[in-house]
Amino acid sequence: MFGTLAEDGSRPSSERAKCSGIHKKMTQWLFLEEMAFVKDALETLQALSLFLQRRDATAVTANTEVDVAVRALGAMRQVDGTSAKRLHGEYEASETFKGVNVSQPSDRDKRKAEVFRSGFYTSLAENIQRRLDDNGIISASAALNPSNWPPDEDERILYGDEKLLAIQKKLAVDIGESNAILLKEFHELKCHGITGKATVYSKQ
């Protein structure tokens, strides 16, 4: 579109020059590469944000979602996300993207893209971990998720006790009883499941 506007003689020269500059920028391989990385990251962040806005989201379930987002962003440092894969596939086939000719990248452009890619995804992953778990509650709550409990009965009975007490302390929750009562109920949950039936809990 901007390429067409840049050649439109009915427009003022200043406007044509501006359109030409925008067209040149938007058809540079490095620019498109960086935008593809950003789009892939935004899709991951959007999924995490939408989950955290759900009314049924808890610290226990949030831990899993945060871990998924961090792992996905970490993987994108080496593996293409959907947008980057689409860009690379079309460019390698025709040196175009969405039907528009794209400038050929120099070796310097490729190095810049790799530096941007690594730093961008690393910073995002670290920022998520720091902002969403600055008090350690989300990471500690992983011990409360039954899917993380050890299958061995002896290991499971005491698993997560320290994490539970740490969460209780950080939240300053007054349970009205000693820690021994809190741990006893947690042990019962791990032994018999949430229904209280006398059957040992097992991971699905």
Describe the protein in words.
- The chain is mainly α and 204 residues long.
- The chain folds into two domains: 33-134, no CATH class; 143-192, no CATH class.
- The protein has helices at 2-6, 13-26, 29-52, 59-75, 82-94, 107-132, 137-140, 153-158, 161-170, 179-192, and strands at residues 96-97, 100-101.
- It has a two-stranded antiparallel sheet.
- A hairpin with a 2-residue loop joins β1 and β2.
- α3 (29-52) packs antiparallel against α5, α3 (29-52) packs parallel to α6 and α4 (59-75) runs antiparallel to α6.
- It is elongated.
- The protein starts with a helix and ends in a 12-residue tail after the last helix.
- The relative contact order is 0.10.
- Mean pLDDT is 81; it is low at 195-204.
Provide the succession of SSEs.
Answer: HHHHHEEHHHHH
- Unreliable segments (pLDDT under 50, ≥5 consecutive)? 195-204
The shape, in one word, is elongated
The Rg value, from CA coordinates, equals: 26 Å
Largest sheet: 2 strands, antiparallel
Distance between the termini: 54 Å
Strand-residue fraction? under 5%
Average pLDDT value?
81
Helical stretch tally: 10
- Strand arrangement, major sheet: 1-2
Total domain modules: 2
Helix content: 55-70%
How many beta-strand runs?
A: 2
Quaternary? single chain
Secondary-structure content class: mainly alpha
Show the helix and strand layout.
Layout: H1 2-6, H2 13-26, H3 29-52, H4 59-75, H5 82-94, E1 96-97, E2 100-101, H6 107-132, H7 137-140, H8 153-158, H9 161-170, H10 179-192
Antiparallel strand pairs: 1-2
Helix pairs in contact: 3-4, 3-5, 3-6, 4-6
